[in-house]
Amino acid sequence: MNTLSPAQQVKPESSASRPSGTPNMTGSNGGTHQARSKIACEVCRANKVRCIRGPGIESSCARCTRFGLPCTDPPVQKRRGRPPKTSDKSDHKSFSISQASGDFTNLATLGMYSHTYIDESPSDRSADPGSAGGPSDTLGSSGPYASTSTYIHPSQVWQPTATSIPAFAPSISTSIPISSTPRGSNNPNLDLSEYLDPRDRALQVNVPKAPFYNNQPAEGKRPPVVEVDALAVSKVSEGDDPLSLLILSTVEAHALVHLFHDRINTHVAVLDRNLHTLPYLRRTSTVLFCAVLASSSKFFRKDLHSLLLSHAQTILDRAITCGVSDIGVVQSLMILTYCKAPSDTSAWRKIGMAIRIGYQNYWHVPRVEPLPQDEQAARQVLNCERTWYCLFCFDRGLSQTFGLPNAIRLNEIGDPEVWAREHLHLGESVDMHLAASIELCKLKDHWRAIFDSNSPSVAYCESAIESMTAQSESLLRRFFTKDAPPPGFNPEYEHVVVWSVLDFMLITKRYHLELAPQDQLRLDTCLAVAAQTVDEIEILANNGGLEIMQDTASCMTSSLGVFLRKIFRRASRSQKSLIISLLQRILLAHTRVSGDENESAPAYVARFIRRILGAIGSESRAASPPRGADGAEAEGEANVPDFLAELEEFMQMPENLVQNDTTDGQYWAMLFSADPSNNFMPVAGGGDVPF
């Protein structure tokens, strides 16, 4: 039976268990003592962290090697006097229990925090087996591994290599869980104690090159784009594929993907039809594949939409919960946000999450090297850049709608037109459409900055409005000249961009009118832009684009309707007739698109425009002069159109457009506010609106 005390069971430190950087000092009488340790370099000592060196004394420590810091030893200050003469016997007797317990604590801390490997010298393994239980029991009852500490046979313990760091205590290492990962592994988290505070003074002086400290990857390069397996990255199983679940056939899936690229992607501008084919989507991102099918079925296969949408949202939520941050998740968030239901209030949060993932993938870091020569690799690089540009447009659009701050800074976006012209050799794409949209977003940012300055000078406002109007007209001429359009840009299919530019021009001219409300020339200019806008609405209603635009069209159309309602009071009779005509054309276009649906975006807009017309009719009848007994009008007005008669005749609308204040109020509240609890609805009678 082992009767030795814990202090007697601990052997004196041998040369095999001494740290490699600690020399053995020999006295004149043959005794040995351990000199002051010089292992810690000057930087590690200043920051009070562990300094781990290689096998050689002259080599740099692991921390300085990782961060590229100069590894220099601190100045040596020799002690005065003669070193004490001690022997091995006396040194062994002076090894107290408190020293042994301190070594046990240091050893356990080393195993927990720095993951260094514990040496077991051959002399220790040849010790009396009965003495191994004492230190093991001591550590297991008080150390951090009390619940998992068990005795491990020496033959099962990992054998040290030449680069292993020896332990401080020789015979107690067999009871500590030892990592089986070699020290030369590529795992960057082997030594967590080396991830220091970024405010470290030494690191600030030397400026280490690492993503942990800098806002860009090492050497300023974006991580390479590699094609990944959908099942390994998206946390989905093979059974989550809609084709494997027999939700639809392969032929139907091909048709929906083709319709998405032809009809929806021209508005969203996020995918490459030559890259995102059906096999590529199934191979790389099941989440994105389901999102494409769900959004396409919303307009072209309504019988499959509810099932595909539920399935897409389920696997997208699962991927986000598991922390997946690949490009397929970001593109799925954008597509499902654009094609969301009117009752969906998650647009602001989803796009914010997508922007965070974009920053995490360093998409905001500009590419400095040319595109790869391989076409597939080049398209994958452009896929990330296109997604970041599209996120910029989503960010600006939602910020302007909700009146909230932007997330992406302007200096994180390059010149979109130069970028789009860079890869024209790859064929047809939506990148020039994206370039025109980004140019418009930058104009709106400039406009917001002008009016955030709160300048009281009327001359300043006049000059700013003229400048914004001139830049908007220049943008239209640059992209929509039929004789010489930009390469890769077809003006015949870009009516959404035209409507967006006209909407911004109407905003500037509306403010120009507010500076001189009685100026009929400025009012005529506003009505001219409004008439051009209604022309684009009718074109989009005929080609199916109005239904796909959904909330974007609702915002711009309701803004136009409220503006026409406000200027109706100060308009002349001919201008009033034009206003009634424009509102009627808007109502007919949205009624035709909505059909029998009562809860689609065009149906909400149609009911709102009808409410505006009803308010105009009631107000005009109350303020109109009475007619003569014979029904004749006053002299001089016989040739003026009777807009009241036209309005009353036109207001005979079908029953499905009857106003539902509760449902419509909720729709407009969710459309114009990030907080749906604000039960806001645009007021047809001239109330304030958030645009």
From TrEMBL:
**GO: which molecular function terms?**
DNA-binding transcription factor activity, RNA polymerase II-specific; transcription cis-regulatory region binding; zinc ion binding
Name under which the protein is recorded: Zn(2)-C6 fungal-type domain-containing protein
- In which domain of life is the source organism classified? Eukaryota
Keyword Disulfide bond annotated: no
Any stretches that span the bilayer, and where are they? none
**SMART domains per the record?**
Fungal_trans (SM00906), GAL4 (SM00066)
Give the species: Naematelia encephala
What subcellular locations does the record give? Nucleus
What keywords sit in the KW lines? DNA-binding, Metal-binding, Nucleus, Transcription, Transcription regulation
